[in-house]
Amino acid sequence: MGRQPCCDKVGLKKGPWTAEEDKKLINFIVTNGQCCWRAVPKLAGLLRCGKSCRLRWTNYLRPDLKRGLLSEYEEKMVIDLHAQLGNRWSKIASHLPGRTDNEIKNHWNTHIKKKLRKMGIDPQTHKPLSTIEQPQQHQLEQNQQCSLTEAEEEDKIKDSAETSLQSTITDDKEEDKSMTCTMEIINNEFCIDEVPLIEPNEILVPTSSSSTSSSSPSNSSDSSKFLEDLKFPDFDLPCGFWDEDFMSNWEFLLSDDSTQHDTKLAVDHGHTSSLSQCSGMVLDQDFWT
DNA sequence: AAGCGGAGCAACCGCGTAAGT
DNA sequence: AACTTACGCGGTTGCTCCGCT
């Protein structure tokens, strides 16, 4: 079956996002919520494909994102979850509020891999490097892959991941057995037993798309006029939804002074904290409607 | 000061699949 | 049931920054 490209690539912009584009995307999503990514660029007045918009929003502009390096605890969680889930970054990310799959993937590839190797642990199998012979290692990888592809196992693993972070990994499954030694080694370094539980209500619920918003334009042909009316600071925000710190952060991003904007700047200049604070909040879906 | 190389990270690409018709 | 469409995911790329020579 032929698959059409996600968007007409001709004339679409690629590469780093500008402050102006961020502004447009934020304005649009704050007002309309996340829905129909394919339509977002057109309605928001962006020369990007929907995919690019979604990525920019989920990986960078979302208000509930934490920025900055992963804490030791988060890092430990990533290692733990990776041992159980493999390279399923989005699943791993779902256990780390405010972190994106992309961020975790990058952190894994640039930091954690090295760290584990330094500790003598194979990052793929989570077994000590010295004890693994090549053929065995290969089989281990295959076994892990195999077991992870089964839906039944996945549910078990998911449940396990949610609980084992605070306790020990059950050893009633072969793959768990194979990880035991790894975990022992890691535990020496990270002491996961002391980390607090993550409560379900601490898991952020990213804004849902049920919000074909009531405030959305009556039809798309009015979208350009509609967008003119979007001025972020004028939005009625639920009381206490975003603290002043956070608002100033986004205002920073949206301000006209940020033409040279590289959102990294915001992070580098101490705006991280407000973003991080947001991660503790559960987004109210009503807000988006 | 300039050049080089590695590290880090944002963004892109292509595939799998759920949802819709 | 067959097909289409859009979304989400994971792998990869390429740009920027920074430290070293």
Automatic annotation (TrEMBL):
GO molecular function, one term: transcription cis-regulatory region binding
Signal peptide: none
Keywords: DNA-binding, Nucleus, Repeat, Transcription, Transcription regulation
Domain HTH myb-type: 9-61, 62-116
Matching Gene3D superfamilies: Homeodomain-like
Subcellular location: Nucleus
GO terms, biological process: carboxylic acid biosynthetic process; regulation of DNA-templated transcription
Domain Myb-like: from-to ranges: 9-61, 62-112
Chain positions covered by the region annotation Disordered: 123-176, 206-225
InterPro entries in the cross-refs: Homeodomain-like_sf, Myb_dom, Myb_TF_plants, SANT/Myb
One of the record's GO cellular component terms: nucleus
Protein name: Uncharacterized protein
Bias kind Low complexity: ranges: 134-145, 208-224
